[in-house]
Specification:
By secondary structure, the protein is α/β, with parallel strands linked by helices. It has 14 helices and 18 strands.
Length: 453
Amino acid sequence: MAGWLRSLVGALLLFDVAAALSFLHHRYEEMVQALFRVQSQCPYVTRIYSIGRSVEGRHLYVLEFSDYPGIHEPLEPEFKYVGNMHGNEVLGRELLLQLSEFLCEEYRRGNERITRLIHDTRIHIMPSMNPDGYEVAAKQGPDSNGYLTGRNNANGVDLNRNFPDLNTFMYYSGEISGPNHHIPLPDNWKSQVEPETLAVIQWLSSYNFVLSANLHGGAVVANYPYDKSQDQRFRSHRRTVNTPTPDDKLFQKLAKTYSYAHGWMHRGWNCGDYFADGITNGASWYSLSKGMQDFNYLYTNCFEITLELSCNKFPPEEDLERQWMANREALVVFIEEVHQGIKGMVSDENNNGIAGAVISVQGISHDITSGDMGDYFRLLLPGTYTVTASAEGYQPQTVTTTVGPAAPSLVHFQLKQDVVRKPPERKASGTRTNNKALQKKVVPRATHRGTQR
């Protein structure tokens, strides 16, 4: 009931839209113009930047909303939306342009909810990850668009099958109690990915994203990790198997947040398919390898879901307004989900932030790490948790905290430096000390580990 009331109140706050938005399909140049128009209308809370270029040289533009654009504020979470990863799945692209205009306009109007969201969150919106594919699909248009025309990038590669396969490493390492978080990339990964994928991976490495969604089309459902099942034999027989992450209940809650705020996703029956509550585990639907949402979870601190938003991958323009009204509240309320769980600073005894500190939650075998300034964000469901912060060269600290249903709980850690005790000096004797042997004794263990790789 509380979630229903929150969605209702949010919808009422967003009901009065100041300006009529243009419900049109935007080619690349038009999309760029739309982004820069928003930036010019809200110059003090927006910034446009490019994370790289597509195969054909088009910029992969991102529009940022923040009260301090271009700056990470400690304890302010980073959120992202990515659209049009498949070039012919265009609704997400148009929805993100509409969302950008909407956030700007409502901020200018003094909408308290939107103002608070922009002041408390750093929001990154990428309308198109695959602008080259979109141009191919757009040349045919919605009436004659083939099911796969424009799906891939200009090199003919499906970008959602192009990220390094960390699932296979994770499934293997799980058998030997290895990690399922912050898995290192293979040495030759750059030679195996497309320019668009490379740009996104570098983007993920540059920002400490906390929550994300990538927008697709062809179904209506909120899909959450894992996308790849562990037993690959099922793939050859076209069978599926539910493959949950350690954060499965949290991911289900995130997916339901979107589906129940959406106009009809939560009803389950859409596009000839049925998904209870309008959500599904990815591998339970069908298993895919090298996808972006699994990569986010296994390589970064970011929790990402995939939103399938329309039966028609390239809906006609007359349907865009109806789709916007169905998704508007869901797009906003999902951003608000970044403000849950726990967050805080990890610092040393001199109050200097510690970057890369590991935050572990007892009972959930998936860790996150602190950012460059020492701040961390751990999404959690309401409950009581035992949380440990640890960092190389420091003594770990463990606390118990309770997470409520609203704002995140502030949990700070101040780590004490490890004291390395030197062995007592020996008094001079007739036998001279072997300096080489003595040096060997004080080589840090980390050095030995490095030489064993």
